[in-house]
């Protein structure tokens, strides 16, 4: 009689000749990631024998994580986590000493001690960070602006601009490590892509880690043409220049990653609700004055924001309502400025969208 090992389930058959034989069929368990940001990061858990259980981090490495990410359709591996970094699980520890080659389709195909055989505690529960569906910005200036494309089912495709807005753009910028979103241009602003169009009617809250976590019609379900390809401008740096110090008497300039030029903000409706956000963002204390009309000289290059309408509580100027993306009715004689106290550095709202911006302070 054939004994099936832990990787397999067996079924017995009785032939008319009274010979009993077994067929071993490959077992593939359900898998999930728990306590992470979205479904593509967290503590690894598998469903076996009617209950969820964890995986021990003994010998846990990037090859094991690759298999988990692939099985969940969450892209390639970004990072592995060990020592219960996503919190200890409960119940059975199902796997220990997992030793994947990285090519397996399912975690249970990898060598391991056997289901439920281990010498671990839940403080050793393994974790994974997957990148989610891959995303890139194409035909812009640098890595942080361009037409949005995602990699799915073996090929790159575009995103339709139906319902595309700054919340969606913010998720893309965050996923790429490009800081905050400053524009969500529509109508194939960066030129038309080619088939397929992967996403349509994307609706992000802005807090998602990956674009694929946002609500949408479904991959490949769309009614768009490439004249509707969505785009993104991300802000990688903010700096204040032309003043007597980095916190006062300055003009606001945005520098988009790797473009080599800076962009100004128009002073239409610019006031002391807007200026405190800039001072807070730069760690320059409170805002004393919000000077207008290029008080510290005219900038050059594009005017990037107009009609900025902050409440004063935002962490980043890009979180405030504005026309964005270079839409304005201003001249550089209307460039906005800020004078900060330079004291009392504080960040009352330290969440990720605050601290992802890279600063360049010009003294």
From TrEMBL:
Alphabetized PROSITE patterns for the sequence: SRCR_1 (PS00420), SRCR_2 (PS50287)
Disulfide bonds: 56-120, 69-130, 100-110, 160-224, 173-234, 204-214, 266-330, 279-340, 310-320
Taxonomic lineage from the root: Eukaryota, Metazoa, Chordata, Craniata, Vertebrata
Superkingdom of source: Eukaryota
Record's keyword terms, sorted: Disulfide bond, Glycoprotein, Repeat, Signal
PANTHER family recorded: DELETED IN MALIGNANT BRAIN TUMORS 1 PROTEIN-RELATED, SRCR DOMAIN-CONTAINING PROTEIN
Transmembrane spans: none
Domain SRCR positions: 31-131, 135-235, 238-341
Protein name: SRCR domain-containing protein
Gene Ontology annotations for the cellular component aspect, listed alphabetically: membrane
């Amino acid at each position: 009689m054939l004994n099936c090992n832990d990787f397999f389930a067996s079924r017995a058959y009785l032939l008319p000749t009274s010979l009993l034989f077994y067929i071993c069929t490959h077992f593939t368990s359900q898998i999930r990631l728990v306590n992470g940001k979205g479904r593509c990061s967290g503590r690894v858990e598998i469903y076996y024998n009617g209950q969820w259980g964890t995986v021990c981090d003994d010998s846990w490495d990037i090859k094991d994580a690759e298999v988990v990410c692939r099985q969940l359709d969450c892209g390639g591996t970004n990072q592995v986590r060990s020592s219960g970094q996503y919190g200890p699980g409960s119940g059975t520890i199902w796997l220990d000493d997992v030793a994947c080659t990285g090519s397996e389709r399912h975690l249970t195909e990898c060598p391991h001690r056997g289901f439920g055989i281990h010498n671990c505690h839940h403080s050793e529960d393994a974790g994974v960070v997957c990148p989610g569906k891959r995303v890139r910005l194409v035909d812009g200036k640098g890595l942080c602006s361009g037409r949005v494309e995602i990699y799915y089912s073996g090929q790159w495709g575009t995103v339709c601009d139906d319902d595309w807005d700054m919340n969606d753009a913010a998720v893309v910028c965050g996923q790429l490590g490009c800081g905050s979103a400053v524009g969500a241009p529509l109508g194939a602003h960066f030129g038309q892509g080619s088939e397929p169009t992967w996403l349509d009617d994307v609706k992000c809250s802005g807090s998602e880690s990956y674009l694929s976590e946002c609500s949408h019609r479904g991959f490949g379900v769309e009614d768009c043409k490439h004249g509707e390809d969505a785009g993104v401008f991300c802000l990688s740096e903010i700096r204040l220049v032309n003043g007597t110090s980095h916190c006062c008497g300055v003009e606001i300039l945005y520098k988009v990653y790797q473009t080599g030029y800076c962009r100004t903000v128009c002073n239409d409706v610019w006031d002391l609700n807007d200026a405190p956000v800039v001072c807070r963002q730069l760690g320059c204390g409170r805002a004393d004055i919000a000077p207008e009309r290029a008080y510290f000289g005219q900038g050059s290059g594009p005017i990037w924001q107009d009609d900025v309408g902050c409440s004063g509580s935002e962490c980043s100027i890009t979180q405030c309502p504005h026309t964005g993306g270079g839409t304005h009715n201003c001249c550089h004689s209307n460039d906005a400025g800020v004078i900060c106290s330079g004291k009392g550095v504080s960040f009352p709202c330290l969440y990720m969208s605050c601290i992802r911006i890279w600063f360049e302070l010009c003294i």
